[in-house]
Q: What sequence folds into this?
């Protein structure tokens, strides 16, 4: 349970604080590193607070670790009084209305409340402490990814049972890697979609703020106009009206009208939000003819480049480079096995389609059309140039040369003694 992990982490952190504060006090008393009065008092106070927190967290942890269903039912009957029950019944509503905590923490607290056993309850403050630590450690994300990997592995094992065991013996070495590669595609696509949604939300919020600011300003000017027009009528209706004062009000009204028209003419362009239409489809012949056909290699390179351009952050681009290499490794290995691995190969493709969003082009017309496009692009490419970081003398090559150098005679002689 995530609450147990968070509590154990809080206990360890406070134990580390106690060791640190005890060392500070010890050095101060020994005259090694004198502290100011304020620092010394702070160290003593922190030591006391950390000690109390550890005791509290250990009690909370013991509740989660030791209670079974019968004990929980007994605790409900004997311990939870009416007022306490009322407090916890209203807890979700109270958490939502808490203005001192961020929305992320409030959502995490509500999620923790849902995962707790029916009859275990923690105070609001305790829940926010657990939620803070849970967010710091990204326990929710890790749990979701772990569950997704378990789903992929379970489905993969179910598919494998339908395949002849003799076919599996030749390719059993990639059983562990295959579900992980599928998971990596799932995480990558999820991250891209999340980044796009966050970007769209920021753009829409910005437009909304501009529109709201414009509306508020126009309302303020309208109210001021109404006020001054009313005042002008009153002044004009007076018998002994002040001409200069009337002219002054008329000037104000004119300025307000000009400002109103100026703001009203401000154009707010339509916001263009991004969408993720999915990864482009690959073609089987790219893999089958890899390392044999320049066209196949180039087509696969372009496919990789298109997906790289879909990645938004630098981390996503780096991750995609690694994922691509592992995917190509598995696809090439399975393709080289031919008919022996068809069922196994199909299982991998099915998982990739279901979880990773990667699909193969199955329309022959589309495949032939893409082949023509690739041929045209190839003609325009300059294959005589190298990448910017090109260097035939790579760092690993230098390392390997050094390792293979024969040792000098003196060192060789030492090996005999």
A:
């Amino acid at each position: 349970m995530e609450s147990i992990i968070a509590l154990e982490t809080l206990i360890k952190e406070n134990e580390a604080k106690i060791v640190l504060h005890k060392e500070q006090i010890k050095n101060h008393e020994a005259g090694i590193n004198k502290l100011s009065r304020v620092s010394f008092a702070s160290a003593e106070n922190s030591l006391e607070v950390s000690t109390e927190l550890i005791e509290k967290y250990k009690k909370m942890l013991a509740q989660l670790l030791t209670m079974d269903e019968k004990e929980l039912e007994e605790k409900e009957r004997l311990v939870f009084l009416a007022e306490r029950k009322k407090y916890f019944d209203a807890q979700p509503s109270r958490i939502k209305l808490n203005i001192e905590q961020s929305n992320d923490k409030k959502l995490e607290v509500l999620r923790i409340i849902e995962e707790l056993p029916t009859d275990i309850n923690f105070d609001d403050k305790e829940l926010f402490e657990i939620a803070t630590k849970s967010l710091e450690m990204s326990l929710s994300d890790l749990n979701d990814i772990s569950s997704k990997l378990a789903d992929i592995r379970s489905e993969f094992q179910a598919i494998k049972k339908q395949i002849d065991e003799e076919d599996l013996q030749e390719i059993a070495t990639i059983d562990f890697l295959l579900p992980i590669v599928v998971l990596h595609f799932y995480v990558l696509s999820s991250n891209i979609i999340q980044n796009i949604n966050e970007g769209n939300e920021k753009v829409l919020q910005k437009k909304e703020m501009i529109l709201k600011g414009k509306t508020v300003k126009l309302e303020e000017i309208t109210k001021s106009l109404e006020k001054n027009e009313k005042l002008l009528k009153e002044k004009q209706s007076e018998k002994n009206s002040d001409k200069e004062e009337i002219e002054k009000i008329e000037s104000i009204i004119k300025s307000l009208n000009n400002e109103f028209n100026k703001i009203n003419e401000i154009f707010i362009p339509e916001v263009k939000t991004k969408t993720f239409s999915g990864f482009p489809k690959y073609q089987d012949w790219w893999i089958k003819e890899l390392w044999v056909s320049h066209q196949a290699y180039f087509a696969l390179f372009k496919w990789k480049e298109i997906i790289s351009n879909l990645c938004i952050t630098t981390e996503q681009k780096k991750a995609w480079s690694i994922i691509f290499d592992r995917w190509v490794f598995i696809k090439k290995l399975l393709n080289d096995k031919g008919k022996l691995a068809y069922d196994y190969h199909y299982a991998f493709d099915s998982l990739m389609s279901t979880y990773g969003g990667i699909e193969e082009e199955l329309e022959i017309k589309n495949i032939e059309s893409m082949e023509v496009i690739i041929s045209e692009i190839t003609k325009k490419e300059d294959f005589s140039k190298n990448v910017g970081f090109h260097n035939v003398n790579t760092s690993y090559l230098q390392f390997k040369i050094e390792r293979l150098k024969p040792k000098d005679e003196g060192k060789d002689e030492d090996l005999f003694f």
